Amino acid sequence: MIRKHARQAWSARAEAVRQAPLLPLAEQLGYRPDPRNRARWKLPGSVLSFHGARFFDHCRGRGGGGAIDLVMHVRGCRFREAVEFLEQTTVGPHPAASAPPAPPAKLRLPPPVEFRSVPIVESRSDARTVVRGSSSLPTAFT
Questions:
Q1: CA distance 80 to 74
Q2: Angle, in degrees to the nearest 10, between helices 67-75 and 2-18
């Protein structure tokens, strides 16, 4: 009976932290976004990509689902340690996911620029014409 209550207590604690957003959690665990591939997050020896509540580590060839799995994967700890770690962290919703979208900025056109065209005096193709037998050319070209 005591075990059943203990299991239910851990289950309730796990449910409270299971849905923690993964991107801020990955950042808290030391991962940084890859500047060349914004879909991947890097830590020495580990490259993660996220799809919703799932993650995949491309270096280790393993993945999982949810915040508890991510903490267990990165820290190499057991289920209870991961739940306790998540309870102690202050991971909130990811700013990009929680902030309402900003209204689009009003389009402002630049001031008009006065443009004056310059008349073409000489064609570029005429200037590059090579006349055979001209004395102004080096002997290698004749």
A1: 15
A2: 90
**What long-range pairs does 100-103 form, CB within 8 A, spacing at least 24?**
none
Q: What Cα–Cα distance (Å) separates residue 18 from each residue in 40, 109, 120, 140? A: 22, 48, 72, 79
The 10s digit of each residue's pLDDT in 76-110 is: 999 989 998 998 886 544 343 445 667 888 888 88
- 2-40 residue pLDDT tens: 576 677 778 888 888 888 888 999 999 999 999 898 889
Domains of the chain listed by start with CATH number:
2-98 (3.90.580)
The two structure tokens encoding residue 67: 């915040």
| pLDDT tens readout for residues 107-124 | 888 888 887 766 655 555
Nearest to 97 by CA among 22, 41, 26, 28: 22
Give pTM, 2 decimals: 0.58
